[in-house]
Predict the structure of Alpha 1,4-glycosyltransferase domain containing protein.
Amino acid sequence: MLFDLETHRLPKPILVLVHQLHTFKRSLFAFLLCVPTSLLALLLLILLAYNGVSVFCVHLPFLAKPTSPEEPANFSRQNLAQKPLLLNWSTSSSSKLASSSSSSSSMYVVREENAPLFLKTQFPIFPKPDVSLVKPVPITGSTRRTRRARRLKRKLRSLSSEAQTSQPFSKRMREFFVSGNCSKPRFFMTWISSLSSFGERESFAVESLFKSHPDACLAIVSKTIDSADGIRILKPFLEMGFRVTAVSPDYDYVFKNTPAETWFNLLRTGKIHPGEISLGQNLSNLLRLALLYKYGGVYTDTDVIFVRSFSKLKNVIGAQTIDLETGKWSRLNNAVLVFDKRHPLLLEFIKEFTLTFDGNKWGHNGPYLVSRVVSKIGSQKHPGFNFTVLPPPAFYPVDWSRIQSLFSSPTDEFQSKWVLGKLKHIRTKSFVVHLWNRQSKRLEMEKGSIIDYIKSDSCIFSCNSSVSSV
């Protein structure tokens, strides 16, 4: 029996076992009380380290080894969402690892259906920053002004050196006009932009000029075209015997003995701020006036297509819009100018430019300028100002707001009749068609459109081309 009912005592073996357990308990507590505090701290540190590893470690399931372990890793988001990748860290391509040990030498990237872009808790300790996610440093107004000022200084410094070629501007222009027997007609274009931006449309403008004026002389005043690469643009015309040249502008010479001379010196020394509008655009507005004042002839923008000869035009400027009630012009434009040498109206244009220059208003120094001057001259009846304002169909048969209609092909019978009617009107009433490049540069010429017909009329060597960006 385990318990004696008469004596109420446990058997002796059980008493011995209980006594030994009490003795072991007292010994264990005594040992723990004797352990140094530093050992307890070490034990706690180990427990914390284990806990940290378990938190930050990503446990991935073991996958079967793919058939092409040598495939390069591709960590694009699309690739990660499509298939798992195996990255082999072995430095020897000839070493083969057993399947039992492949988990120790390979890292697997697995696909998770609809996986979030970022894990919420399991981040690497030192993550590599993703530059696409870095918020850009905001550019303040002062930073923009500083950058603009630096670009402006570089541009102003370059103005004096644009005509530093082997021969001066005046000599090259004189030799071109004399050797080419270019008394009339003389045509001028300016190009202040980069050479790469002189494209098919600009080249076709030159082509259409020579189609309607095969004996003309064209001087393109441009630093970028007056170069080895730029001459390649003119080579097709030169090979066909057309008289065309490119000359870097000499502003000091062209502006000399005009009000533009003082204005340009103030601009170059920083005493006149060019404003927010492109300096090249405003210089082109002034340069065309000074070129015609010094040499006389015809100036046209590079986004016009010639339709008829200018042989009968003399001292004319074109109206862009008219007042439907009065029939009088409401705005002129300076994209096409035909004037004799030293015409007084040109001098008034130059004076107005220098006195009212504003580089922050688009058109203020161009179309609005000639409109202001002609309006004042007409109202005051100045003697000696013999010139003619041609109606809009002459140079601007379509307003800039409707220029898309010239590039679109007709889709029904009504539009077909409109296209044929408008085309007939342009062929009989217009000398050029201004394409308003700022609004139409991204438009493509459609087959059967008005521009398609005009291109066929005005082409020389691009008639069979499939160019749709005229």
About this structure: The chain is about 45% helix and 10% strand. Confidence is low (pLDDT under 50) at residues 60-129, 131-135. The first strand starts at residue 85 and ends at 88.
